[in-house]
Amino acid sequence: MATLPPIASDYCPPFAPFFGLMGVASAMLFSSMGAGYGTFKSGIGIAGMGTFRPELMMKALIPVVMAGIISVYGLVISVLIAGALTPSSYSLYTGFVHLGAGLSVGLTGLAAGYAIGVVGDVCVRGYAYQPRLFVAMVLVLIFAEVLGLYGLIVGLILNTKSSNLC
Amino acid sequence: MGAYSTRDNGGGGYSLSSLLPYVAISGLGFVGLYMLLTGSGEQFAVGEFILSVSPHMWSLLGISLCVGLSVGGAAWGIFITGASLVGAGVHAPRIVTKNLISIIFCEVVAIYGLIMAIVFTSKLNNDNDTITSSEAYYKGFALFWAGLTTGLCNLVCGVTVGISGSSAALADAQDSQLFVKVLVIEIFGSIIGLFGLIVGLLVSGKV
Predict the structure, then answer these.
(1) Measured between alpha carbons, how far is A124 from B126 in angstroms, rounded to an integer?
(2) Which of A105, A115, B77, B154 is the least buried, fewest Cβ under 10 Å from its Cβ?
(3) Residues 94..153 of B with a Cβ closer than 8 Å to A: which?
(4) Which residue, among A38, A31, A28, A29, has the nearest Cα to A114 in the 3D structure?
(5) Cα B135 vs. chain centroid, distance in angstroms?
(6) If we measure between CA atoms, which residue out of A72, A21, A77 comes closest to residue B58?
(7) Tell me: the pLDDT tens digits for B86-133?
(8) Is residue B92 less than 8 Å (CB to CB) from chain A?
(9) Is B9 helix (H, G, I), strand (E, B) or coil?
């Protein structure tokens, strides 16, 4: 005969890993959405300008690389949180800390990737007409990328604050 | 002026679909405030709900969402690429065989989901004696979130690769030396699905 489910009244309840795992998932998911949007939106612009100026295409791939870095931010925090998950002696506090870390990286990555996509699309089209715009394009892309980095900083700081006192 | 038909409700009318989000949110808010202010707020217990769902349900939802959402992403990418490929191939039939590689990139996304679902399935067993232990719950949660992560990342990856493949087909139809350069964008898109796979393996590996 099976026993009754455990009562969730202590500081390390059995459902605490649910929230930590939600943090892992949201970090990877939202930053993937941002990276994907950045990749395909700037890819449309790059393919379009390549039909007019194919010799400028290799330098125009920069928005795609920066969008890929956004997904790496999500991967880094997911790996860090997943390494700290255990079935037992995992407090609810740690679960919420990991959820917060994952959500902060994920949502900022989504925003940064969206910005990189729109900026990359428009800037590579302008770069095809005026090659001196390359420096301006890189500057604007760096500012968009750094938004994802802010989320990663907050996520890493939050991750160091976890403690499993039951 | 009579040649245009406008959806004019006589000034100030609203359709049901535009009001529905506001009605839903205010309804939920009303119910929540009622429960809170009449002292029965503790009935909204998230932890109790999570523990009352069987760990088998969590695991199997995760496994099915993994393969279902990955295949959905692959399908979405295939139809986006395929439509552009065949459309551009009307005037440039030489592009068709080379651009099938974009469709294969989308199919690979579905294979990732399939492989991960098979890996997760190998961790299932009908251990009813220990079903209420912390380890059993952890396994259920881990398989659910690993499957959901892999599935949704592959969905996003499939759409990304599909749109990039569509751009590649259209650029190739214009000028065949552009294909390889736009393929680089597709490769950057497919690493997103690979990262989802890595996270899914990491999370389910500890189970």
Answers:
(1) 56
(2) A115
(3) 128-129, 131-132, 134-135, 137-139, 141-142, 144-146, 148-149, 152-153
(4) A38
(5) 28
(6) A21
(7) 999 999 999 999 999 999 999 999 999 999 999 999 999 887 888 888
(8) no
(9) coil
